[in-house]
Amino acid sequence: MSLNLEQHKLLGLEYWAKHWYRHSLWFDHYSRLLQKTATFSPQALEAFQNQRLKQLVHEVYRDIPYYRDLFVALKLKPEAIQSAADLSKLPYLTKALVVANFDKLISQKKRNFLCKIAKTSGTNGSPARFIRSFHSINFENAAVWRQWKLRTMPGKRRITLRGEVVVPMSQSEPPFWRFNPANQELLMCGFHLNDKTAEAYLQKIMAFQPQILSSYPSNAYALAKYFRYHKINYQFDAVFTSSETLPPGVKHFIEDTFQTRTYDWYGQAERVAAICHCKQGTYHIQEDYSLVELAPTMGPNFEVVGTHFFNTVMPLIRYKTGDLVKLDPEQSCDCGSHFRTVAFIDGRACDFILTPEGYQISAANHIFHGVENILEGQLYQEDTACLVIKVVVGSGFTEQNRLELIKNARENTSEHMRIVVKVVDYIQRAPNGKFQSIVSQLPVFDDAAEAFAAIV
Ligand SMILES: [Zn+2]
Fold first, then answer.
1. Nearest 5°: CA angle at 265, between 263 and 268?
2. What is the CA(151)–ligand 1 centre distance, in A?
3. How far is the CA of 339 from the centre of ligand 1 (A)?
4. pLDDT in tens, the chain (456 residues)
5. What are the C-alpha distances in Å from 297 to residues 228, 304, 322?
6. At what angle do helices 134-148 and 25-37 cross, to 10 degrees?
7. 113 Cα to the center of ligand 1, angstroms
8. 35 C-alpha vs ligand 1 centroid, how far in Å?
9. What spacing in Å lies between the alpha carbon of 348 and ligand 1's midpoint?
10. Where are the domains of the chain?
11. Is 3.30.300.30 the CATH classification of the domain at 353-440?
């Protein structure tokens, strides 16, 4: 998506609007709550979860047609769910069920103008929509800030470098960044960072002197490589990563380059589970964020299934995320938290499309947005000159749909790539069974990270 200059000017206002929306009085309320629950004993935590769960079940039975019908069909009353153990009386909820029952999953009483709609990828079956309540958005923000407060004090200078459009994709000269006055952060465009532009990025960072880097792992890794290549030493107080898998080699590489610790956050658009690094660098399931079940799979890993606590407009109970975790054999951490620990989170695609200009495009969803009759879609790349869009199509698929895909792909990647739409019967899953929205035969993290992983 390209933005013109007028839209960019408006973005300045948007920063403030977003900031106020996410930092309402409810943000303060939830921050205080999360400060308390962070140090709960196992017993207090269990009592907290059970109390939230009972309240949730009571509300969904009263307000949400999907759950009322489900309870009736199962001959259950809300009182049947008193604790996490009772949850197994209810079936899992899947993305396909959410798509099929969207209207029935919403509380018409509580839905209002402050709610936002989030969409997940339209590539794995139909795109799913989720309504986020004002409360849940402020709660999410408070939960993220709790992790940030491990290393961030108000007033620290930070840069955010992510695969998000900050300046028009067609722009070829710096600045590839904008200052967000509301958050006091420098937003840098992850798409424009490449061999040609790296020096300009580095100069800007050296002039801005940030203490915190917030980034996708792939962007932080690319930045670290450029700092090494240009032999510039720079120390961050902390690096916060999210939205992609953080492989151990990449984590070490970033930490070694910037002489700091990396703190990762795992969440998903559905917001039914959050897992993040504590100050000791251990992944903890955020037990006060939602109720997380770890469901066995065919392999050695467990699937994250979540029931969120704070979105009463569209509550999701036992939602299967499709994301996998590896259990922590130690099952403990000396940071003082009683939240369960996991060793590793697997399953978020960290592949990206590489354009001939060297841009890394990790947000593939835009390409499928608004194009009808697509049942599944995957971006496939073997070389930077060509992008293949594999699609499983419905019976109404037309030439117009194909042209829309090509147009969207050009706007979101590069005008210099050949775009091929290939209609297929089935899209192959990854060995772990997960659907991948991007499959690239180009290396995600190049030899540097692997070599580094081998020596640490
Ligand atoms: Zn810990």
1. 170
2. 14
3. 8
4. 455 545 655 667 888 888 888 888 899 999 999 999 999 999 999 999 999 999 999 999 999 999 999 999 999 999 999 999 999 999 999 888 898 899 999 998 888 888 888 877 544 455 688 999 999 999 999 999 999 887 666 678 999 998 777 888 788 899 999 998 888 899 999 888 888 899 999 999 999 999 999 998 888 988 998 999 899 999 999 999 998 778 787 888 899 999 999 999 999 889 999 999 999 999 999 999 999 999 987 667 788 999 999 999 999 999 998 888 888 887 789 998 999 999 988 754 446 687 887 776 765 667 887 788 887 788 899 888 899 999 888 888 999 999 999 998 888 788 888 999 999 988 877 665 556 778 877 754 454 455 444 443
5. 41, 10, 10
6. 50
7. 38
8. 15
9. 22
10. 353-440
11. yes
pTM, full prediction = 0.78
**Neighbour-count burial of 50, counting CB atoms closer than 10 A to its CB (0-12 exposed, 13-18 middle, 19+ buried):** middle
| 337 alpha carbon – ligand 1 mean position (Å) | 6
In the numeric block, the tokens 């407060």 are attached to 149
How far, rounded to the nearest angstrom, does the alpha carbon of residue 394 sit from its chain's CA centroid?
A: 28
CA pair distance 45, 71, nearest whole angstrom: 27
